[in-house]
Amino acid sequence: MEATQKVRNPVEKIRVSSGSAIVLDLIEGFLNAKPTTAYLLTYLEGKCSANCAFCPQARSSSGNTDMLSRVTWPIFGADRVFSKLANSVQRRDTLRVCIQALNYPNVLQDLLTIAETIKSEGITVPISISCQPLNKEEMKKLKEVGVERLGISLDAATESIFSRVKGNIAGGPYSWERHCQALLEAVEVFGKGRISTHLIVGLGETEREMTRIIQWCVDNHVNPALFAFTPIPKTTLEDGNQPALSHYRRIQLARHLIVKGETRFDKMVFGKDAHITSFGVSQEVLRREIRSGTPFRTSGCPNCNRPYYNEKPSGPIYNFPIQPSHKEVEEIKRQLRTFLDGKK
Asked: Which CATH entry fits the domain spanning 13-339: 1.10.8.60, 3.40.1160.10, 3.40.50.2300, 3.20.20.70?
């Protein structure tokens, strides 16, 4: 699409995460940590056609349609969003745009239009899209209009959990096999290292199961991004519990070491209840990586920090949107103390 060409059928409304809306000067507010990615959500009157058990946008949920996870997403006129986005990108406050998609018949056209408009307005920012599985031709269309990265969320660590929370048991349209196939096809279209998936820790999986799917993702050039399950009122899983921090820290550390190539699933050791008992690396490597704080930061696309997506600013913090402080790293060490032999 030529830079001067105007989109013929513009999207009129877009939802923007509340944190991004503050950064874009769409609303006023205070932020402990500013999102470095502008998070946009396709607008739909009514509910998503999917029925994910953890999501307030699900077809059977009676939750607030302004919510996605624990974040509110107010509605704005699209022209205003694009104008504010251009200014924020120019200031270097926004380093990436992530367009998240509900599932409905015309969603692909809306995604194409939003991406085309960003490019046609001369807004030079990398674009990621997080959406349901598409076919390869649809993926190619997104790439042609300038989308740099694509995310397709597995969410669950195993096929049985997937079926229960977003597949046929949940009354949703999705299948584990198709999601995995779509991720592999997306790698073919966009290239290695440009595809991501979301994995939610705390849906009933074991640490062994979560670590195995992380390894599958890495082996297939898919970037696994971790979320902590967050119970949202009026969803099917509203009575669930967030994972224990020590459990989440072990998964974060395993993900980091696998992505970095320091270890593999088959080098790790699992004990009672399939908990990690060894990461398959030396104490020196383990202490160095924990001390850095990096494994415990938000994982995802470059410059994606998703502040407080699964937690309140008052804590406890699951994914750190900025570098953890010395005090926070010391607390993480205590949560992982059984792996550190009592050494700092």
From this structure: 3.20.20.70
